[in-house]
Specification:
Order of helices and strands: HHHH
Shape: elongated
Largest sheet: none
Structural class: mainly alpha
Low-confidence stretches: none
Oligomer: single chain
Number of helices: 4
Strand content: under 5%
Mean pLDDT: 94
């Protein structure tokens, strides 16, 4: 688990930097201020949760709850795809209905953080 989520977290951290730069340099003149703010939100949550994957990987050998940690990582990863992914696509396509699925990603983020807390609680 450690290696997989270090790789996944690192790749996504770099991808969030690239997407942030892409937004700042290529999209700023193309998107409305509201859509640009949405893009920036997607990038911020993408980075925060890429770092969360790294945190989970680091904690994997310290917390004695591998199933909960695995689910924490999976839920964070799903949240990144659904939350940030839907916002990126919304900004690029203008398809407003994508905003309706974004909260599903937010719920996945919350569930992932809860699973991490449960993993830590069980280990104490």
């Amino acid at each position: 688990m450690l290696r997989r989520y270090v790789v996944l977290g690192s790749i996504n951290a770099g991808l969030s930097v690239a997407l942030g730069a892409f937004g700042a340099h290529m999209l700023k003149s193309l998107l409305t201020p509201e859509r640009m703010a949405t893009w920036e939100t997607a990038v911020q949550y993408h980075m925060f949760h890429a770092l969360a994957l790294l945190l989970i990987a680091i904690l994997a050998d310290r917390l004695n709850s591998p199933t909960k940690l695995l689910w924490a990582a999976r839920l964070i990863w799903i949240g990144m795809i659904v939350f940030s992914g839907s916002l990126y696509i919304l900004c690029l396509s203008g398809v407003g209905v994508l905003g309706a699925i974004t909260p599903i990603g937010g719920v996945a983020f919350i569930a992932g953080w809860v699973m991490l807390a449960l993993a830590a609680r069980r280990s104490s």
